[in-house]
User: Fold this.
Amino acid sequence: MSVIYRTAGLAQTTTSQRRDSSTFKSFWDAYQDWRKWERLRSDLCNLSDRELMDIGISRGEVDYVATNRDADPRGFRSAV
Assistant:
């Protein structure tokens, strides 16, 4: 009986450690994503209005561009 109990206890400990490791990894990945977002946002905010215009965004679109790095901000503009 104690052999079965110890084996079950070991399985529970391993699962708990995996869950803790997974939680930490999720936190770390979210932190790294936030740092990339903040760095991009900071870099874009430091550009002049003329430089932003040259790359095709306005100052009001900086947060959108930093958040949606894969999207083209010009995609939602109407063609004139």
